[in-house]
Amino acid sequence: MYQDMVTLYSSPSTNCSGAFSSYSNSSIGFYNYHYNFPISSRKFGSHKIYLQINAVRMQDGAVVAQPSKTQDETPLKKLKDGILSKEQKHTFDFDCNKDKSTVSITVVGASGDLAKKKIFPALFALYYEGCLPEHFTIFGYARSKMTDDELRNMVSKTLTCRIDKRENCGEKMEQFLERCFYHSGQYDSQEHFAELDKKLKEHEAGRFSNRLFYLSIPPNIFINAVRCASLSASSAHGWTRVIVEKPFGRDSESSAALTGALKQYLKEDQIFRIDHYLGKELVENLSVLRFSNLIFEPLWSRQYIRNVQFIFSEDFGTEGRGGYFDHYGIIRDIMQNHLLQILALFAMETPVSLDAEDIRNEKVKVLRSMRPLQLDDVIVGQYKSHTKGGVNYPGYTDDKTVPKDSLTPTFAAAALFIDNARWDGVPFLMKAGKALHTRSAEIRVQFRHVPGNLYNKNFGSDLDQATNELVIRVQPDEAIYLKINNKVPGLGMRLDRSNLNLLYSARYAKEIPDAYERLLLDAIEGERRLFIRSDELDAAWSLFTPVLKELEHKKIVPESYPYGSRGPIGAHYLAARYKVRWGDLA
Ligand SMILES: NC(=O)C1=CN([C@@H]2O[C@H](COP(=O)(O)OP(=O)(O)OC[C@H]3O[C@@H](n4cnc5c(N)ncnc54)[C@H](OP(=O)(O)O)[C@@H]3O)[C@@H](O)[C@H]2O)C=CC1
Ligand SMILES: O=C1O[C@H](COP(=O)(O)O)[C@@H](O)[C@H](O)[C@H]1O
């Protein structure tokens, strides 16, 4: 058994069936395959794509092909029956495994907040959009005692239909819920996972089964759950993948220990480390904006860019999550992952292709070119209670699950630098905070001045008035806008600032999918581009671990800021040190 390069031909099809012929002499190989899968159509359309197909001949003689964009981890020995004989042209019907394969998705920690708020609604949205395979089963797994109906009832409260497509919504929900089941068990019990395995098998009914486990549980029980799921409930003849939620450790050492422990039971390509910011529409669009428009890429360097800002703010505190948050703080919760991931995508060199490994290779390179964050380049804050309009908003330490003397930052601002030829000397500023005046996430790119600008005198002394700024508003009200200087219409010569504005709600009638939808679908399809590879994670932690340790060791007291304010004044001094003004305050 070996792999070889073969070409498959198929006429483009809009449905899931078609025929192709193969000159393959193995049952597994890379095929240049022109086909339109409904499940993949959001990405591939009817374009020519490279797919790996694992073809397996089932006992009844039918051939089941498992399409996957990258190499699948299905053990080769399991494909024994699927060997296609040498030098012969094979033609067989390919029907997207309609009757022969199934995906079982187990949400581990199904009783929890994330499962209810995000995972089940995203799975329903995928079902509603026709993106889930024909045969699938969803299992909730947690310690809480619940019947299938109780799970369905709990889940039904958070399902919503697309605003732009409400047809058959109730009916679709019913159909979806009928395919949701529940199994109660401990996270460290192989026996309980074996019971789950038995139930999964009943639902899989002899089909070629693939299994996805979503670990929506606190990090201290990740390893036990992975051990039990992998030893007792892995798929016998399909793939088994595990989505792991952050936090992936709290520093370099604990992250490496977590990765090491996960790898005792899983191979790297079975681990899908999720960072839901990578699934956000505007973050996905970052590469498109940059690499498919001639006007941006040539400007994307120290030559034209003065600074870049990554800003995250929430207008609510840590209410209800104080216990978790106090152990991590805002730098680990938002900066080391969400903002740094966006930064890496923003600053990386052009990847060789759009393949997951090519993109992740570039991200690792840029992360490794960065200087570890220095204590002088960080300021931290913590919100205190504030009364506004007769309402009292509690301070961080008013939360009963937070120690009264906690020094955990709920706000941080930082200046980072990439020591490579493209970005030498350009400050990459980050700012993230809870309980601020607004909820938003954006990337701001501030350009340099126009050299010898003929209109200098029209701008007065305000430098920021004169320079262009590109804003990528990730949320809310997704938009990309470019601030330009413009002549005010009239007989005089007065200049003002205007926005060239691509506001998504005005341009696209379609509702924007939630990040979890994209990421779940990618995990089902084996697309790893938006998931974090272990070397990326190591590089990310190396940048933040020294300063996190120093903050804790030196017991740095965070600057307090009132709930609902714009955050501590220190953030302005930090920016000013690098001659930067935060763009969100303009
Ligand atoms: N909630 C959110 O918005 C986000 C969460 N995350 C991450 O996702 C994961 C899940 O988050 P979330 O749903 O909020 O977590 P929860 O605290 O709600 O926990 C999920 C489930 O795990 C079980 N559980 C909780 N604590 C323990 C414990 N000490 N020992 C054993 N089981 C426990 C409970 O189920 P039962 O008792 O029934 O077994 C609970 O319903 C976490 O890793 C979190 O960091 C990431 C981003 C955002
Ligand atoms: O990962 C996390 O993200 C949320 C913010 O996510 P968003 O998609 O609502 O912007 C944040 O509230 C939470 O603290 C953090 O753990």
TrEMBL record:
Record key words, sorted: Carbohydrate metabolism, Disulfide bond, Glucose metabolism, NADP, Oxidoreductase
EC number per UniProt: 1.1.1.49
Gene Ontology molecular function: glucose-6-phosphate dehydrogenase activity; NADP binding
GO terms (BP aspect): glucose metabolic process; pentose-phosphate shunt, oxidative branch
GO cellular component: chloroplast stroma
Pathway where this protein functions: Carbohydrate degradation; pentose phosphate pathway; D-ribulose 5-phosphate from D-glucose 6-phosphate (oxidative stage): step 1/3
Residue span(s) of domain Glucose-6-phosphate dehydrogenase NAD-binding: 107-285
Reaction catalysed by this enzyme: D-glucose 6-phosphate + NADP(+) = 6-phospho-D-glucono-1,5-lactone + NADPH + H(+)
PROSITE patterns: G6P_DEHYDROGENASE (PS00069)
Transmembrane regions: none
SUPFAM superfamilies, sorted: Glyceraldehyde-3-phosphate dehydrogenase-like, C-terminal domain (SSF55347), NAD(P)-binding Rossmann-fold domains (SSF51735)
Cited function: Catalyzes the rate-limiting step of the oxidative pentose-phosphate pathway, which represents a route for the dissimilation of carbohydrates besides glycolysis. The main function of this enzyme is to provide reducing power (NADPH) and pentose phosphates for fatty acid and nucleic acid synthesis which are involved in membrane synthesis and cell division.
Protein name: Glucose-6-phosphate 1-dehydrogenase
